[in-house]
Amino acid sequence: MNDIPYRSALIIGAGPGISGSLTRLLRTAGIPVAIAARHIDKLTPLVEETGAIALAADASDASQVERLFAETDARIGAPELVIYNASGRVRGPIVELDPTEVEQAVAVSALGAFYAVQQAAKRMLPAGKGAILLTGATAGIKGFALSAPFAMGKFALRGLAQSAARELAPKGIHVAHIVIDGVVRGERADPSDSTLDPDAIAQSYIDLLRQHRSAWSWELEVRPWVEKF
Amino acid sequence: MNDIPYRSALIIGAGPGISGSLTRLLRTAGIPVAIAARHIDKLTPLVEETGAIALAADASDASQVERLFAETDARIGAPELVIYNASGRVRGPIVELDPTEVEQAVAVSALGAFYAVQQAAKRMLPAGKGAILLTGATAGIKGFALSAPFAMGKFALRGLAQSAARELAPKGIHVAHIVIDGVVRGERADPSDSTLDPDAIAQSYIDLLRQHRSAWSWELEVRPWVEKF
Amino acid sequence: MNDIPYRSALIIGAGPGISGSLTRLLRTAGIPVAIAARHIDKLTPLVEETGAIALAADASDASQVERLFAETDARIGAPELVIYNASGRVRGPIVELDPTEVEQAVAVSALGAFYAVQQAAKRMLPAGKGAILLTGATAGIKGFALSAPFAMGKFALRGLAQSAARELAPKGIHVAHIVIDGVVRGERADPSDSTLDPDAIAQSYIDLLRQHRSAWSWELEVRPWVEKF
Amino acid sequence: MNDIPYRSALIIGAGPGISGSLTRLLRTAGIPVAIAARHIDKLTPLVEETGAIALAADASDASQVERLFAETDARIGAPELVIYNASGRVRGPIVELDPTEVEQAVAVSALGAFYAVQQAAKRMLPAGKGAILLTGATAGIKGFALSAPFAMGKFALRGLAQSAARELAPKGIHVAHIVIDGVVRGERADPSDSTLDPDAIAQSYIDLLRQHRSAWSWELEVRPWVEKF
User: Fold this and answer.
1) Out of C203, C211, C221, whose CB is closest to D204?
2) pLDDT (tens digit, 9 = 90+) per residue, A95-105?
3) What domains are defined for chain D?
């Protein structure tokens, strides 16, 4: 049983994969869920399956994030759980990258997370309760060659997570950063489990949400058993 | 429900606190548990409460650890889950420390864990299955002043955990290192939850054991919500 | 003697303090130096003292950074050494921060460094030689409460530094990130050395520049002897 | 010029390679040097070349380390600079390692360093001055598979270094840990510089010794420009 102590959830950067699995687990636990993405057409199957509501928003735009939270308030109540899954990525040799695309990648991975944390904290602080989970990547701990923008965004996200945890945890808000190390499984079956099963990842998010405040984790890394690290 | 996929457990360095909570959770899940300590008299209440068996062993002595595993094999079957909780600590200015006590502290915190990992791996590798959890401390990540021996032992333990995870995870053995950051609660009630509740810590160990192999964590930090870090 | 193997230097985010000390050491070694800042009036004393040239540029604007490098090329030759010292900082509780100021802080600390690394690499790669030093802070390793934007920017800078080092070092470009941990001394004397002497910091930058390519460091932390860490 | 502010040096775990280069640089700077190893025959060429004195000691034995320092006191004066280079290594699958060899490896890499730090601190604390450099390895930061004992020893060494730096730096003793990431060059020439030149490594040790106390580093990583990390 997932005795999750939060009564409403907003997932930003939704799509299939981790967000889909989280939506299912939260809905199964009876929690109203809003899922946000830039284009919500792709969310229709998940909405129909789970009864979650879909909201359109560009996470890299502060005013859209503000409006997204207001809509969530109106539709399912102020979110007591906020999960940020959006990320921006552009790869290539440093000299070949387009500065505008680099800015946009950092905006989606990190600035959008800041806007979300800010809106979440505005709602959670008065209640003295809430949880904010930020989806990171190995790139937030190790900056790989040919992937500077992703490293910048995911490092920044981790810095935000740490700073927010230090500020908000003593006020009753559980902030955690999850490092996804490996490829998340898509539609294809993978009996060898060499890719991350999104349901397995989502279960670890749920485990974090169920932690007692006397023993909170601010970070969790997950990787397939056979992954090199 | 704790659907833990292991059928026998050995906890080394047992006492009240974390080991007590773990013993209770594992026994409740129907798993035979052996608990080992240098002096087992203190374990009598836990044995009587849970039906665990107590075995005497000095974890810092390789031959005693070898014998402990043999006795565990005989009493409850080869352990599929091994938890190492022992640690040695001596504090003081570097110039005032007794070298013999420093050696003993490192032996209990780290060498004993090596002996346990080795004996565990001997049993788990043929089965292609098992879990080894090593109880660390913040001192394994940050070496504090006036506590060099504890830093040495806990850093070494973390190095062992990482090396063992890299070697054994691809062979089906889940190795994880848990960083306890803060004071573990004793008998005294603590309604403010500013100390770590051992039951809450133990639940996070159980969560690690329930992780699917496609998304294993090799490390987890836990601290009270109000703990500075 | 500072036998620095680079023949032209560009320092971005110049001012007194570290940039001033670096300018002096580089000029003493006979190296032409361009120093860039948003407002170059404040650089006049340093220019008069050292013979460096001052160039105006807003480091958070990609096109201004591009123009800055072109001007440097024209004035002292393509820079073989580029040092990025600019950083943006805004403090306060997460809920009280202005999103626009957060964006600007991250832009100055991290995006500007990306633009500079990109322009530097364009010049250094064909030569197979060069050095890029990025000035970080403890905030790039530890995200403090009430300082999320600085943590985001300095974490992102560190991610950039690591990624750039992995990409560019094997092409002959030494990329290093210097973690300044503590308060940099201003005009006031400090005989106790409890603040960082900018000349001492600058000497460590020079040491990095003098490293042989068979033993390069990609990161260096400096702090006063009495600083808690 | 190497204006090193220490007047006597003891290098433990000496041999060719890093210790040889350090001995040459220190002797060139006019500093009396004692070099210690278990078997000092191999040191004869270095002694003849540099005028250093050789002392026999097993670094993993506390009483021998105590005697080594006493002899150093008598021969060149209490060492103001102590460098610990000894390390113990045994490789292989965890189940195949001999516990006695594991203990010995940890003793040489870490316990011996503790004995040396302790003896050094006893001499340096009254003077309020000194430097202790500890030679680490990547294995102290990342625990590789099939190398658990080396990981344990080098992690423990790093924990010792951090703890000692926190305790001793505010008393005027510079403690630093150098992470050697890569293969140290032997006799064979290596024009591609894909291995670490011991002279280049030694120069970075000297740079650390020359740091002003207002900007000390407690750790430095060095690796060849082409090394993957």
Assistant:
1) C211
2) 999 999 999 99
3) 9-222 (3.40.50.720)
